[in-house]
What we know:
The protein is of the alpha/beta class. It has helices at 19-32, 42-46, 66-73, 81-84, 107-112, 114-136; strands spanning 7-10, 36-39, 51-54, 92-95. It contains 6 helices and 4 strands. A two-stranded parallel ribbon has the order 1-2. It has a two-stranded parallel ribbon with strand order 3-4.
Amino acid sequence: AKAGMDCAIATPENYQCDAEVVANAKDDFKKSGKELILTTDPVEAIKNADVVYTDVWASMGQEQEAQLRAKSFAGIYCVDADLMSVTNKDCMVLHCLPAHRGEEITADVFEAHADEIFEEAENRLHAQKAVLVTMMKD
């Protein structure tokens, strides 16, 4: 909302965003006149998107949940060519890396958007270096 963009998030039923965070976000979106869509349907979330952002199904620290999460996400929550066919023509795809090709994103979609994905990774590197420099100052 603060960036002036609509936002759509697709997650399985048992992995929805924190209710308090959603309540705060809905207030911000209402004030901004932008739309927040929370859905279990990836097609609904990605339709006419200018930017698609995906992440691994189980992040670092969630390894013990990986198999359970795979059962909930597999076959539905994968950015593939079919899903990308409902986005806007020049849609950008981002991923915070590391990617598990064939799970949350197919290899062909990853490769088609690798320049964008790796530029994001480089930008994150510089931001993290700035945080380290700030923390290490006396």
